[in-house]
Amino acid sequence: MNSVTIHKNKQITIEGGQPMRDVTLLDIYEHHIAQKYLKRSGMAHAIAVAYHAFQLAKEHKVDVDMAAKAGFLHDIGHFTWYRNGKWDYELYRKNDIHPIKGAERAHKLLIRLGENPIQAKATSLAILFHTDSFLPSNDIVRTPLQKVVKWADEKDEEEGGKHHYRKIDPDRAKQSIIGLDKMIDEELSKGADSEETSLPI
Ligand SMILES: [Fe+2]
């Protein structure tokens, strides 16, 4: 099983009792690239999947920070498949590569924001494998983190892609992101007592 070793003084620094991360969900949420592309596939869906990924990561003992970030960014690679002003699902189903595009776009964004490169890569790969829809076969073996992100997306899916059209007020979206950041920090601070923590990715 792959694992990432997180050193206490590198990844999780305790300052004045507050656990610190290199990049928070709020940093991502406030970036114009995230705003532009996440709105395309639905900010409400992105936030819901981030929450599901956090809960599933806790249950399966996977890194909650990476899971939530991958959940939040999993659909950042969507293209707009419009024909005559309407989303064309047939065109989308045949030609979509949003997990590939999303993995690359999320990686670039995370690195620009100052993310730990090991985490940025693992998060990006979890986005790449969050669905089988673009793959020629569905026989890939996922890591625990990749499984968690796939399940989180499936939990929020609605028939006919309706989950992409759910709306959320920007203030409520921001408060939800801040709330999830707090939950992640609390969870990480529980594991920061030991000198280093190995978590499956
Ligand atoms: Fe999704």
Keyword list:
201 residues, Hypothetical protein af1432, two-stranded antiparallel ribbon, 9 helices, disordered N terminus, binds fe (ii) ion
Topology (elements, then pairings):
Elements: E1 3-7, E2 13-15, E3 18-20, H1 25-30, H2 32-41, H3 43-59, H4 64-73, E4 82-83, E5 86-87, H5 89-95, H6 98-113, H7 117-128, H8 144-156, H9 170-191, E6 196-200
Helix pairs in contact: 2-3, 3-4, 3-8, 3-9, 4-7, 4-8, 6-7, 7-8
The structure holds fe (ii) ion.
Structural overview:
- The chain is built from nine helices and six strands, in the order βββααααββαααααβ.
- It is mainly alpha-helical and 201 residues long.
- It has a single domain, classed as Hypothetical protein af1432 (Orthogonal Bundle), CATH 1.10.3210.
- A hairpin with a 2-residue loop joins β2 (13-15) and β3 (18-20).
- α3 (43-59) packs across α8 (144-156) and α7 (117-128) packs across α8.
- Mean pLDDT is 87; it is low at 1-15.
- Fe (ii) ion binds at residues 45, 49, 74-75, 153.
Distance separating the two termini:
8 Å
Give the number of domains.
1
Order of helices and strands: EEEHHHHEEHHHHHE
Write out the strand line-up for the largest beta sheet, numbering strands in chain order. Answer: 1-6
**Global shape:** globular
CATH architecture assignment name: Orthogonal Bundle
**Approximately how much beta-strand content do the residues carry?**
5-15%
